[in-house]
Amino acid sequence: MKHFRGNSATILIAAIIVMFSFGAEAEDLYEIKCIFPYWTGFAPTFLARDLGYFEEEGLEVDIVFDDDRGNVLPAMMRGDVDCSERTIGEYLTRPRTDDTTGTAIGTIDLSLGADAIIADGSIKTVADLKGKVYAGEPNHPAYMLIQVALKEAGVAWKEVIYRPIQTADGMAIFEDSSIAAVGGFEPMISQTLKATRRKGAHILLHSGDYPGLIVDVIVIRTEQLKKHPDKYAGFLRGIYRAIDYLQKNPQKAKEMMAPHYRVDA
């Protein structure tokens, strides 16, 4: 099995949140429903829950994996979920408008290698993708990475044949010999490289090649944040305490987080 790797550097970013609330009902302070992709950079949220930090803040946090960004905004608009964790790029881009709910309250993760593009043995450099098929999910980190790298290599995006896919399908799609490269994130990247039958499959580029480009944020349903700012201040505090624990006790923290992703520590 893939090992739980520290490819993404979780970082503590100071966040200023209004700390007052009036007439908050007890039940409102106990439950936060959070949804985010199957991505190890968000593991400190599980760690905060498992260490009891959320409980100490008077919170009960329910977590659901969902890689499909198209499900998240409608769920937040309906009030089905209170929290989402995604890249800043996904947070800012369409179909978001000025009226779309969701306020970023803090940073949870800086990707330093766990977002990547894998390619078959014939693709030695990014420039080799000219005229070839690249498959990846729109508006995801790898989608940004590949376009930045192509521009640096002097290859126009229109010179690459782009096939939009769901990241969850990337492992199977990479087995298609007509696909030169696939974008994704951990643990999908390592799992694909381990399982593939394609000769010479390798990581062509990753987020560590562009430090600071891929930043993940914690987004809260705006209506709930305004109503219960103390609730989300406690949520953020719990996550940052977990990040501090991870930095001080990396092996123990990985052993606690790994089972949530069905990987080894």
What does this structure look like?
The chain folds into two domains: 151 residues, Periplasmic binding protein-like II (D-Maltodextrin-Binding Protein, domain 2); 95 residues, D-Maltodextrin-Binding Protein, domain 2. 32% of the residues lie in helices and 22% in strands. It has ten helices and eleven strands. The strands form two sheets. A six-stranded mixed β-sheet has the order 1-5-11-4-2-3. The protein has a five-stranded mixed β-sheet with strand order 8-7-9-6-10, sandwiched between helices. The longest helix has 20 residues. The N and C termini lie close together (10 Å).
Q: Which descriptors apply to this entry?
A:
265 residues; alpha/beta; D-Maltodextrin-Binding Protein, domain 2; 2 domains; 5-stranded mixed sheet; 32% helix; 22% strand; globular
Short description:
The protein contains 10 helices and 11 strands. With 265 residues, it is an alpha/beta fold.
User: Mind summarizing the main beta sheet?
Assistant: 6 strands, mixed
How much helicity do the residues have?
25-40%
What is the structural class?
alpha/beta
Roughly how many Å is the radius of gyration?
19 Å
What is the straight-line distance between the termini? 10 Å
**What's the name of the CATH homologous superfamily of the largest domain?**
Periplasmic binding protein-like II
Number of helices: 10
In the CATH hierarchy, the third-tier topology of the largest domain is known as: D-Maltodextrin-Binding Protein, domain 2
Order of helices and strands: EEHHEHEHEEEHEHEHEEHHH
Morphology call: globular
**What fraction strand?**
15-25%
Poorly predicted residue ranges: 5-26
